[in-house]
Each structure stands twice: as structure tokens, then as C-alpha cells.
Write a structure and sequence with these properties.
Elements lengths: L5 H27 L8 H26 L6 H30 L3 H15 L1 H7 L2 H12 L3 H29 L3
Amino acid sequence: MIKVNPKLTRISIKYGAVTALFTIIAFLVFYFMGLQPWRNLLSFLLDIMVIVIFLFLALKDYKDNVGGGEFRFYHGMTIGFIVYVTTAAIFALFYLIFIYWGNPDFLSEYIKTAQEDLVNRKDMIVAALSEESYLEQYKMIANTTRSTLVFDVFIKKLLIGLVVTPVFSIILRSSRA
């Protein structure tokens, strides 16, 4: 049985919390600038960049300061998992609070905006798929719930970390420095 170094967990949670804080700040900046971060590509790219940077820093910190230069693939995967789950959970909790109590009208505004976007792309969607598919998407948007939105942001943050963690784990395992 492999014992997990408690320092690994502490470093991971610390970096996950800092990453979540930065993604929350970015969200709020975009929100107060009126840029709708939930549908803004720049906001999504910034989230990716923040998660990637802090995930790498967490792995490098462990390798240099805890592992004494030794770094195994499972170290990277464990640290990465804890970092991105912590990030996703904290951000999802913030988002839940934000859409339930911070902006109670958020859901209706979200649905209205999403439906307007869909109407603007109707011709493209119908041409690529079908009228029935378009109507199905329109109906699905109308049935969106707050919990669906919270789950969506949670999954997006998880997926970002899930994609980059193995890459960084391999790189740091293979490198000497």
C-alpha cells in the first residue's frame, strides 16, 4: 500500500484554493465589467491559463521542495487531482452562492440571453442539423436549472485539470531539474 505524504495533500489543497480564488476574481472582474463570464471566450481562456499555471506550480513545488527532486507519475496525478477538484469545488460553491443569492435573477437572465443567442444562430443550426434539433435545444435552454449551471462550471474546471495533469506529470517525472 502506498502512503501519501501529508505534505502532498497540504500543497495540493493550498494551490487548489489559490487557483479557485484567482478564477473567482477573474469571474467577478468580467461580471462587473458587463462581459458575461459564463459565455465569454476570453474568460474561459483565462480560467484555463490560471488552472494550468497553478497546477504546474503545485507539481513543481512538490518536486523541488518536498520530493527533493524525486517525482513520480503518481505524485503528479495525485497532486493534480487534488488541485483541480479543490479548484472546481470551491468555484462551484462560489457560483452556487452567486446565482442563488448574489444575483437571484441570474437564471432568468441566463436563459433569455442563451435563447437570444440560439435565435441568432437558428439558420446555421437548422442548416447543419435540423429544425427539430433547433427546437429541442431551445426547449432544453428553457428548462435550465441553477443546479445544471453549477454542475456545468464544476465539470469544466475538472476537465481542464484532467487534460493537463498527465502531461505535466510526465514532463516533471522525466526532467532532471
